[in-house]
Amino acid sequence: MAENNPFPGENNTGHIWDDNLRELENPPPRWWMMGFWASILFVVGYTILYPSWPVGQEPTPGIMGWSQIKEYEKGLEQVAAMRAQFEDRIGGMTADQIIADPGLKQYAVASAKVLFGDNCSACHGSGGQGNPGYPVLADDDWLYGGKTAKIAETITGGRKGVMTAHRTILTEPEVETLANWVVQMSESAGAGGSEEGWALFRTKGCTACHGQQANGHVVDLPNGEFVTVGAANLTDGIWRFEPGGYDSAKHTILNGVNQTGLAETRNAVMPVFGAQGKLSEQDIKKLVVYVHELGGGK
Amino acid sequence: MGLNRVSPLAADDRETGITETNACHVRQGSAVKMVKSMSHPDVPHSAVDALYEEADRWQINTGGQTIHAKRIAGRWRTIKWLTASVWLIYLLGPYLRWEGRQAVLFDIPNRQYHIFSATVLPQDFWMLSLLLLFFAILLAVMTALVGRVWCGFFCFQTVWTDIFTWIEEKLEGPPPARRKLDQAPMSLDKLRIKAIKHALWILIGFLTGFSFVAWFTDAPTLWRAFFVGEASGTVYVTVALFAAGTYILAGFLREQTCFWLCPYARIQGVMLDRTTIVPTYDEQRGEPRGRVKRGETEDHRTTGDCVDCNQCVAVCPTGIDIREGQQEGCITCALCLDACDQVMDKVGRPHGLIRYASLDELEGRPTKALLMRPRVWVYGAILLLALAGIVYGFTALAPIELKALHERAPLFVLLSDGSIQNKYTLKILNKVPEPLSVTISVSGRDDMTLVGAEKPVIAEPGGVTPTVVFVKIPRRSLAAEQQPIVFHAEATRSSGALIETERESVFVGPRQ
Ligand code: SF4
Ligand code: SF4
Fold it and tell me: Which of A255, A287, B68, B214 is the most exposed place for a label (fewest CB within 10 A)?
């Protein structure tokens, strides 16, 4: 340090070593310093307003009372408000009315996609493509009917199909004849069943559930509609139980469906979604639209 | 840090001799210079002190001094006005009308960008990346060839500063008068002049911000809404920020922005090379500089062409001395070329003591013609490609677009009538500004049935309308696992014009 600055008029800081080694001072621009102080002020203000300093377990809360969870909840409210206008309209409509309105249908389908994923896809597949033992929802073959009212009934109340095990009722040759007949029916769209097969079908009580025409219609109503009890349509190429064909048919005839105390019996149970409050009426309505629109709704 | 000369005022009464003549090198000054002198008995202190001699000249203007540059008419001054007028497009563009609406409108809430009759939707945004590429490369190629032309002639910072100082000059007079006014104590007269100046500056700032917003919303509506207080908060905040930014940056920060804030200045600096032409002082010709001496004839003078009149420094908007060589502070506005040429006219010496020249040219190295430089071709090719992409994009902008998403789960289903059904989600993008009634059809096979497209789909303008359709083919007639099919969409505009588009897709059946 020099007592008397030997380099007057120069912008040195007065720090001089070895006679002439000195530090010159060129301060940062004033606007830069102003920005610097302003940013410090900003930090102070910010820490007062928002959560910041870690004290113990929690940060200081900040006087604005802001928190991430509140922000999230606000976001949820916004979404709910956006949905409300659709949900309100859907509430007062039937599934068929919703389907007739392209905008509402689009909303119902988009919103039910999640419900379907949570509740239905485990058995019926993510796109309604079915699984072994669980019906395909994207085709037009419906055990209980593909109209919206029927679909709603199925989802709300669940379904449990029943077919007697015929292992003690029918003889082995009879079972084989019937199984062959089922395969013939399936391959020929109902036109090529053998006479013996038809005879057994009619006399052994099968028509009670599968209908006179073997198409699953127990009663055909004059208005073109029909009543079913959930028995399969035997006149199309679609198999209720995978993989289909002679062995499948024989197994089903021998062991039936949902027969208690019989290990080999087919299981075919659709749980109840309506009663225990698992799904609201509104949710079911949207699901009905979704399932109906999967590809085969009637 | 940019070497930034002291103000012209200080330069005026500076001693003239510049001992250092290694001009034409980009200089690096540093805020704090520390040179360790070796306390070696053989090195005289005076030799070390010489290092500090220019210390006062290396002082950096950090905005403490206002640069009051002299304005003179001239060729480059005219060119600068012309190039600056490009910004009139920015200010006036929003008022251009086309087919009943704003010709260029970036409608962000509706995600539509209207450019004359073309409507660009977010789906066409790949063109924007090409546009950005085009301008980025253009900036690179221009910098490599002719230096910072952007800075000197086009940059909003320098253009707006130019306008602001022009206003300042009109109100306060030439630089000496302005300096005097700055130092004078506050008086009613000074207050009046300053108030008018600042008001005009703020007005320009407001117009700048307003024009910006006007590109994004209908301009005439905006004017009304703005002044009756009906515009949105975003509008007021944006305009206020722009106005404040313009006022501060062009009114006060000025050349400091180029020195300290602007990244372009730094990037462009490294893109120059020996072949780049920039405003350069020809030191071979100019040195040793000296005043014209009375009685000395032109043939027998001992000095170079530079008469050391300091006019080049006086006109420089960034307050630097071009005679120190190429330096970061120079925005290549070429105003010093005008100044020096006028001086040369007066003393009867040829123009071009300060001129656009490359380092190679100045050092007597051979210079390559423009078209012989590989970088011109490489940059040119990229520019052309980007441009071709944009032109293609604009010509190929279809009024509607169709996309077909094939359902994957399940890929197909067997129906009770023995046919195979595939499900498709068709997405219709309507780019015309009216709702369209779109008819969907499918082709590729005779035995197909299309379900779900019985009624035309109403596609709202500027949006994507999805619709689900099913295609059925009898299982028996399927010969291969996959069949190509084509969806068609057609609609008639209210003008009667038929628009159509198609999209290939695939029909999947069971493995054969
Ligand atoms: S040195 Fe010349 S070209 Fe560079 S900024 Fe100054 S006036 Fe413009
Ligand atoms: S204007 Fe020309 S002559 Fe005057 S000082 Fe600058 S370079 Fe020298």
Answer: A255
